[in-house]
Every structure is written in structure tokens, then in C-alpha cells.
Amino acid sequence: MLKPRSTPTRDLINLDGLWLFATDSSVGGSPWTAMLETQLEAAVPASYNDLFTDPAIRNHVGWVFYQRRVRIPRGWSGERVLLRFDAATHAARVYVDDVLVGSHVGGYTPFEIDITDAAPAGSEVRLTVAVDNQLTNVTIPPGTVTETHDGRRQQQYLHDFYNYAGLARSVWLHSTPTTRIEDITVITDVSGGDGIVRYDVETSASADVRVRVLDAHGAVVAEGAGATGELSIPGVTLWQPGAAYLYDLEVELVDGDTVFDSYAQAFGVRTVEVRGTELLINGEPFYFTGFGKHEDTAVRGKGHDDAYLVHDFQLLEWIGANSFRTSHYPYAEEVLEFADRHGIVVVDETAAVGLNLGVQGGLTGVGPKPTFSPETFNDETRSAHEQHIRELIARDKNHPSVVMWSIANEPASNEDGAREYFAPLVELARELDPTRPLTYAAVMFATPQNDQIADLFDILSINRYWGWYVFTGDLETAEHYLEQDLRGWAQRFGKPIMMSEYGADTMPGQHSVWDMPWSEEYQRDYLAMNHRVFDRIPEFIGEHVWNFADFQTSAGIHRVDGNRKGVFTRDRKPKTAAFSLRERWSSLDGRKPGAPAASDH
């Protein structure tokens, strides 16, 4: 799906702002077929949960309604009129006046709806969006909805971040020609000093396709014709980690001198390859430094905010990080576009977090029932998971910053049924994109001895908390077991290994001269212990600290106003560990510890 943008043949209107808002429990009947009788207004983009002081809204489980009036420009007569939602968490139904015009399931990927017939050019319509936050055993991510004795719905889920919901990303009204470009795929390679650009253009009708490659200054450096083809860029400038360079593939749909449609797709020329126990970007070994992150800020919840986007990337640069994982869902596309422009490497993850009933059994990993079964996570769950993979890759396939797909976080890969569940998903992801390696993040219960799916993937991403959840406060013992653990993965699978999560909850301002959990010194020393082990493992290719910043979770006695494993506070103030990470990562510059710098070769 092409991201809406203004072109010589397309127009775009942003619908962000204040919308009327109501929960299903506060209005009766079918509120989407009439004006909402409410005094509440909600900001878009933003999660609705923290906007209001009413706990019934924050804790609401079920449908909520957003509504506003929209005027379709008179000049769009004869064009297709579409609504685009960058995300609606977790399901949506869309109404124009009294008519249901479309729906979507999945909270972190975009969808668009053709409203040409329901909203003619020049008309004003009532737009209502119903959004559902409920999670079940057949949604991604999964959850369970129960009822209290007084009839209130309660949501339980297996992931450790707050179930923020609503319209957390932008809403757009846009037009396209009736004869139009539907999709563009760009795959790049390098031959000597030239860049190779393989492209595929999908169109709504038969027409001639004309393509040109423009460099960063707008100069034409390659051109061709046909819906599918290969172009060569002489003396190409590569997209590199820390040194981004982008080209535009300008596509026109034409008939002689008549241009039906025009669209420019940004891309970078770079290669990604797993060779032995290394990941290579442009033929050079790459060592990941950075974080698992979250889309999470005060008041906005998961609402996208460009100011936080800029500041977070500034902090990534300050601390010496070269990468992050979109844990545990696809982030707003603006985040990936920013990473494209600034040379930050991304591990792009689906929203498949919580496919592990073992977490209900604590660190024993023994759940009350099997994770994969007809009654728990089943064929219908996997079908939803497949759709998430399809939509993620369709959206993000052209981003040069994305070097790897992560199709799940901490699934029960140690349980029977895991292979039957995941093997078709791996096959699907490889079919959709054979150019990028695949990974998943392994949970603490999954060991080199009992994991049933690691051989299906290209890179082993390991989540480990030795010294925090296990051997808490005993870093010497934790160091011994961590090294044994990682060496076991390397010995059994012979693949590149990275630590996709390691961290310790830390209260800013808590200090101690001893190994005292929750203190800033303990977080610093915990990370240093992990780094000593990483540096002794030849197969190691990277480290992503959990987490970039403190973030909100559901209420619980083991959380103090959220998860406190951030190296930065929720409002982005550095803890002590941030300075030690900055010292380590700034010296690595994308190289494995101990490896010579490029100038030393």
C-alpha cells in the first residue's frame, strides 16, 4: 500500500485535530448512525486512555467512537476519494453518515477505505470511527476479556506494556486518479561501483509505465520503462548506517503525453546478508548497539508526536546507538522515514507479543494450559498473525533502514506445537520478502536445549535477565550463567546471536554503594556485566538494552508507575547507566568489540 502524499496527480488533506468522543457504555443504541451526544473531545493522534480524568474511560474495555464532519473538495470530482488511517488500535469500523464503508482488524498497520460513492466531491459528510480495544485468544496481540460481578468488562493480556487504544496515528483524506499506481516495490543490489535497482509497479489498469531515478539533488541518474525492470546507477552512493543517502524512484503512468498518475518512492541502495555468524550491511560486518523502544509518552500514550521523534533520535545519537527494535509492534511510518533519512538501523517487529501462556506461571515457565492448542492459540490466531506479517512487510518493504523482520516477541518456542505454529509464518515471510533475514526474540524459558524453532530463523535474538529476575543482586553468579546460556545457543545453532533484551528496573535518584537492585549503580553494573559476557562470545553481533525509556504498563505490585528499565526516564532524563553506555557505544561505531576500525584494514 502506497503512503498517501501530494503529487502532481494526487491531493492530500490531514484530518488530525479534535474529534467528538464517546465510549459505547456512555451512549445508547447505535451511535455511529447519528450525531454523538457528548461534550467530550479527543485529540487525534493520541491514545484516549490518559486524556481524560474519568477512570471509566481509562479502564474502558470495548468500543469507543470518534466523530467529526468532513468536506470533500469540489475539485476531486472524477477522482477516487479515500480515507487512510495510519492505525486504529485494535479494530475499527468506519461510517460515512449512516453507511458502514469499511472495517479493519489490527492495531498498528494502516488501512484505507474508498468512500467515493458515499462522499461525492463538494459534499460534507459525518465521519464516525468506532475503535475496539478488546484482545482475545485469536487477536494479535492476544488477551482475554472477562466480566466482573457487576457487569464491567476487564481486559487481561500477556504483554508488559499498557494497552493504549484509539486513533494514535494520523487520519488522512486523499484522492487518486481512477487509472492509478497501486503499489511499488524496490529491491537494491550493488555491482562494483554501480547500484542495481529492481522495481515492480502494480497498476489499476493497463497503461505505459515510465520510471526515473533521482538523486538527492533531483538529478536524473537512471531511467527506464515498463512495469517491471532493472536500472543501474553509475557511481552509486550507498545508504550506510550512520550515513544515510536516499534516491527517489519517480513513477509515471502514461499514455503518450498524458500522465494519468505520478508517485515518487524514496529508497536507499544497500545490501543485507547473513554470512556465517555475521550480519553484513553493504558487505561489512555490523554490530547492533541500541534499544528496544516503545511508542509511549505521558498523556499521549502511543500517540505519535514529531517532537518526541526528533528528541528520541537526538538521544540515540548522543548515546552512540546505531539501531533499535520496534518492540513490540510496527511503529508509525514517520519513525521509519526518519530512520531512513538519518542512517539508523531498524529491526522491524510484528505485534505478536504474548504468545506464551507460560508467563502466567512465573519464571518456572509452566503455564496452566498449553500455549498452542485448539482452545488457546490456534489456527485462527495464526491466520491473524499471517495478516499482521503481510501488512507489516507491505508497508515497510521499501525502507532501507529496515534490515531484519522480527515476527514475534517471546513466544513459547519451548513448547510443543511451536514449530507447527511458526513454520508456516516463516515460509510466508520469506515468500513476501526473500531479501531480509528473519528473527524472533526468545523468552527466558526457551533454552538451547528445548527451543523448537530457532533453526528456522537467520539470527538468534535472545531476551535474558540474569541478575534481575534470576539471581537478583548477585551479578557474579548471573555472569556465569549468562555466559553458559549464550554459548549454548552458539554451539547448538551456529548462527549470529544478538541480545534483544537485557535490563534492570531502576528508580532515578536511588543510589547505593552495594549491588542494590533498583539503584542507578546496579543498572550500570548489571549492563557492564552483560557486556563482559557479550565480548567473550565470537558469534555475538549486537546488544539492545531493554529499554530506551521508562514506559507505562498495567497496574501491578511489581511495577511502580510502569516499567522502570529505561536508561532514560519517561520524560527522557538520563540515568547513570546512560553515560556508561555512551562511553561504550561511542567507541564501537558499529563494530564488534575488539574489531579493527575501517581505517585499520
Automatic annotation (TrEMBL):
Single GO biological process annotation from the record: glucuronoside catabolic process
Keyword NAD listed: no
Enzyme Commission designation: 3.2.1.31
Alphabetized UniProt keyword annotations: Glycosidase, Hydrolase
InterPro entries in UniProt: Beta-gal/glucu_dom_sf, Galactose-bd-like_sf, GH, Glyco_hydro_2, Glyco_hydro_2_AS, Glyco_hydro_2_cat, Glyco_hydro_2_CS, Glyco_hydro_2_N
GO molecular function terms attached to this record: beta-glucuronidase activity; carbohydrate binding
Gene3D superfamilies: Galactose-binding domain-like, Glycosidases, Immunoglobulins
Domain Glycosyl hydrolases family 2 sugar binding: 14-177
Signal peptide extent: none
SUPFAM superfamilies per record: (Trans)glycosidases, beta-Galactosidase/glucuronidase domain, Galactose-binding domain-like
Superkingdom: Bacteria
Family membership: Belongs to the glycosyl hydrolase 2 family.
Protein name per UniProt: Beta-glucuronidase
Organism: Agromyces albus
